[in-house]
Amino acid sequence: MTDLPASATSPAHSPADPATAPVEHVLTLDCPEAPGIVHAVSRFLVEHGSDIIDNQQFGDRRDGHFFMRVHFAALGSEHTTATMQRDFAAVAAPFAMRWHLEPVRTRRRVLVMVSRYGHCLNDLLFRTRSGDLPIDVVGVVSNHRDHEALVAWHDIPFFHLPVTAATKPEAEAQLLDVIDSFDVDLVVLARYMQVLSDDLCTRLAGRAINIHHSFLPSFKGAKPYHQAHDRGVKLVGATAHYVTADLDEGPIIAQEVIGVDHSHTPDDLAAIGRDAESAALARAVRWHCEGRVFVQGRRTVVLR
Ligand SMILES: Nc1nc2c(c(=O)[nH]1)N[C@@H](CN(C=O)c1ccc(C(=O)N[C@@H](CCC(=O)O)C(=O)O)cc1)CN2
C-alpha cells in the first residue's frame, strides 16, 4: 500500500469519514474557442481545493467551438456543489459557456418506451438492476401490453398508451404527463415503433435517444433487416441517436456492427442484430448520463 500524501491523511481529509471524504463532481462545458479557457477552469479548480481525476477536451477547428469534460474531487468540505456552481458562473460568463457542474454520482431518471420487441428494454432493465448504468428507470411506456409482466417484475410502473393515427395526439399528451409527473430526465426509445410528432420532438430535444436497427445512414425506416438482406450486406448494425422530427436523422451517439453472410435470412439478421442494438443503446445511454455527449448541429462530440 503506497503512502498517501500528507493532505490525504490529515484529519480534515480522512477518507473513512464521509463527511470530509472528497466529493467527486463532473464539469461539462462548451463555448466558442478562445485563449485561456483551460487556464480559467484549472484556476477555478485550484481555488476550490479540487483535484482533477480525468479531463477530456476537443477544439473543433472547423467551426471554432470548444468542448470540455472534467471529473474532479473537491477535497475540502468548505466547497459544496451549490457554492461551486455559484462561483463557476462568473468563470463561464466571459466565455459564453454552456455548462453543467454536478456530483458524479447523479443518477438520471429514465422513461423507456417500447413496442413489440423487448430485447433492448430487457437489457436496459438488467444493466440498471446490476448497477452497470447510472440510471433509475422510473417508468415504461408501450403501445402494446407484451412487456407489462417483465416491467412489473422489476417493480416499475407500466403505462399502456395505444397509438393510432386518430389517437396519437391524446397518447402523446398522456406521455408528456408521465414525463412531467415522474420528473423524467431522459426518454429512451428502446424499439418503440411509432413516429413522434414534431412538437413532441421539440419538447424532448437533446433528452430522447432512439435505437435504430441499422448502421445509419443505411436502411432507414421500419424494415431495415429486410432491406439489408435484399442488398446482400456483410455487416449489420445498430445506431443510437438523439430523436429529431426528421426520422432516423438525429445526431448519432453510438453505433455497433456485426459480421453476417449470404446464408443469413432476414430473421437471422434480426436475431444477430439484437445484440448490436442492445450494446449500442446501453453505451449511448451511459455516455449521455455521464455528460460525455455534446450535440454540435447534426453531429455529436463524445468525450470518453
Ligand atoms: N420523430 C421521430 N420519431 C421516431 C424516430 C425518429 O427518429 N424520429 N425513430 C423511431 C424508431 N424507428 C426507427 O428507428 C422507426 C419507427 C417506426 C417507423 C415507422 O414507419 N412506423 C410506422 C408504424 C409502424 C408500426 O405501427 O409498427 C408509422 O409510424 O407509420 C419508422 C422508424 C421512433 N420514433
Automatic annotation (TrEMBL):
Region described as Disordered: spans on this chain: 1-20
Keywords on record: Hydrolase, One-carbon metabolism, Purine biosynthesis
Domain of life of the organism encoding this protein: Bacteria
Reaction catalysed by this enzyme: (6R)-10-formyltetrahydrofolate + H2O = (6S)-5,6,7,8-tetrahydrofolate + formate + H(+)
Active-site residues (renumbered): 248
Gene Ontology biological process terms in this record: 'de novo' IMP biosynthetic process; one-carbon metabolic process
Pathway given in the UniProt record: Purine metabolism; IMP biosynthesis via de novo pathway; formate from 10-formyl-5,6,7,8-tetrahydrofolate: step 1/1
Pfam families, sorted: Formyl_trans_N
EC number: 3.5.1.10
Residue span(s) of domain ACT: 26-108
InterPro entries, per database record: ACT-like_dom_sf, ACT_dom, Formyl-FH4-Hydrolase_C, Formyl_transf_N, Formyl_transf_N_sf, PurU, PurU_ACT
GO molecular-function terms, A-Z: formyltetrahydrofolate deformylase activity
Family statement: Belongs to the PurU family.
Record's function text: Catalyzes the hydrolysis of 10-formyltetrahydrofolate (formyl-FH4) to formate and tetrahydrofolate (FH4).
Name this polypeptide is given: Formyltetrahydrofolate deformylase
Organism listed in the record: Streptomyces auratus AGR0001
Gene transcribed to yield this protein: purU
